[in-house]
User: Fold this.
Amino acid sequence: MKSKVALTGNEAVAQAMKQINPDVVAAYPITPQTEIVQIFSSFVANGEVDTEFVAVESEHSAMSAAIGAAAGGARAMTATSSQGLALMFEVVYIAASMRLPIVFPVVNRALSGPINIHCDHSDAMGLRDSGVIQLFSENAQEAYDNMIQAVRIAEHSDVRLPVMVNMDGFITSHAMDVLEVLDDETVRNFVGTYVPEDYLLDAENPISIGNFDMYDFYFEHKRQQVEAMKAAKEVIREIGKEFGRISGREYGLIESYKLDDADVAVVVLNSAAGTAKGVADELRANGVKAGVLKPRVYRPFPQDEIREALKGVKAVAVLDRAETFSTCGGPIFADIRNVLYDLKNDIKVVNYVYGLGGRDLRLEHVAQVFEELENIRKTGRVDETVKYLGLRE
Amino acid sequence: MATLKELSRVEERFVGGHRLCAGCGHGISVRMILNAVEDANVVVGCATGCLEVASTIYPYTAWNCSFIHNAFENAGATISGVEAAYRALKKRGKIDRDFKFIAFGGDGGTYDIGLQSLSGAMERGHNIVYVCLDNGAYMNTGIQRSSATPTGADTTTSPAGKVIPGKQQPRKDLTAIMAAHNISYAAQTAINNWQDVHKKAKKAIEVEGPAFLNVLSPCPRGWRYNTPDIVQITKLAVETRFWPLYEVENGKWKLNYKPKKYVPVEEFLKPQGRFRHLFKPGNEHLIKAIQEEVDSRWLALLERCGETPELPPR
Ligand SMILES: Cc1ncc(C[n+]2csc(CCOP(=O)(O)OP(=O)(O)O)c2C)c(N)n1
Ligand code: SF4
Ligand SMILES: [Mg+2]
Assistant:
């Protein structure tokens, strides 16, 4: 049974957590994630879940406790944003290397400094190389759906990795949206019970975890993490299909929007994809063959799907809501350009950094991007590879 | 209380094959404490430091029970998580065996970088024991000062130089800080007295809620004494009242050992290379200041324990 409800992104994520009813949640408040922790605490206080909620004294401890819990054999979660994720940095890598299936929503917010509470993706991008799976969500519906699928992806025996479920701070987390939620039983059946393989609380088979790993094994262990990331792609696809059967909403690694015959395309994560799709529709009405590519999964990187989706396009603009300070563009730009290089199709790829610290991305900004792409397509000339959108210069 | 003979028959949870230095206090402390666990499984948590690095070199382990090392500063939070998992899985009928949770951290991982994580774990009331293995410096990274390093000690980041004679600050009183969390049990012990260690470990393990043990765990490398003299050096720490043995049980402070006579602190300092510079002519005032620190701390402790605040007879 499904029902349409009006929820904010944070409420939708908390709702998913309630239905998953994990064994342990350890979390610490930070804007704009705070509501998730608050709402979940009220579920605990009112007996709507029987999760052990550990109200830790920092995000470093939140992830550390989640690691302890998951290593203990529990289904464990945490949640954070921005500075909280930055504080967790050290232990997120450890969670991944221990192959612990910890699911954690990250409500994307700019990193200090200067301090700011609004959306950008610098927090998530800071951990793109940590070995966790990163899912992105365009709206509250996707955040809810991703949370439920994340549990299965994380715990799959071919994967066993943490999964970070991203959504845009305030834009998605605080805006009321209409979405379809599944009934508790459907979710319960879908996520199933967690059966850990090797865990600390297995009295018959004690284990040591977190061992000191020298040059004779460390490299192989890192390589195994790569294998798990590779395997995750197929797992994500399978689970996306299975989720489609219970919800009517099927998920893959990317969403291709009107790319089949597109001349020009925008690549963008999270909520801005909605804006971009709206602009593409308008342009299509005026005869411009515009399309949008939204990676749902950013780590592992869906290079084959992206290459396939963009192979016929003449000019691509990658929109990055994070800066790398490399002076040669944002993080997604580097990845996309890398993937298209093999095609030798001379696809022009440009980069726009947008929305840092919560700066709005307006329809006219995206329209301007498409216009510039059309110019590139027509002239074959790129004047400037990396630009900033909506910035006073 | 178990006899030594009985204890020698307990199945060891920390076994040979580890690579701690010969005569390291950590191995002795850990065995003594784990031997006090009766009729339960154990999950050991461990902070980064000599103990972890020497006992879990992949693919080997010296731990005969479940063991988790996470990072340097988060043994408190990590063991909290394991304990929360235990409660959750037990409540949901997924496991039925009884477990105890014991975390070990060095003084660096406990007094300094891990203090917040430990404080949080204590405040939340997890049913855990946290054991600090205090050797008074960051030994694993090559003997740097910590806030547990004794006044005057020569370490690689508080070197005894031409102008500054070793560490200038007195030690942080961590056991008192832990007691101030109003936990069920906090105690200070030392390995020269196995009965004291055993009794306190047993209490810490058996009380409901969080417990803390601070164990003086000598490091022959960092302290630079004659390695076989570990029991003697620990005993001197206790007899000179540098390391008093006491416990705080449900808020009640109790002194566990009162030296019969006044042993000057220099007897503890003298056999150790880290204090050698203090014994150069002209540095008498430095030793005098250390003695004053020891004496005033001792008097304050006696007062807290409800004893007459007086120094032992000379
Ligand atoms: C965040 C972090 N900072 C620094 C280190 C380096 N480090 C590892 S062990 C250690 C010192 C350990 O000292 P202590 O806790 O006293 O344990 P000991 O080795 O003396 O038993 C340090 C500084 C680290 N591993 N992690
Ligand atoms: S350096 Fe010190 S603490 Fe480390 S193993 Fe050797 S004796 Fe033990
Ligand atoms: Mg130390």
Notes: The mean pLDDT of chain B is 97.
